[in-house]
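Problem: given the chain below (67 residues), write out its structure.
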Amino acid sequence: MKFKTNINCDSCIKSVKPFLDEAVGENNWEVDTTDERKVLTVNTTEDEEEIIEAVTDAGFKIQKIEE
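Solution.
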């Protein structure tokens, strides 16, 4: 699953890491901060709502990218 976010730097990634690690597991996600959309890619069978909730709880914006 891919999401557009406003996670735009290493400090932001550190802030969201505990939330995403808990929701989808460590090493199951990554953020491409070089992409202007700051794409969060998640490899999981978890429900997308859990991912959205985790990122929102961390204080960031997130929007599913329809492919």
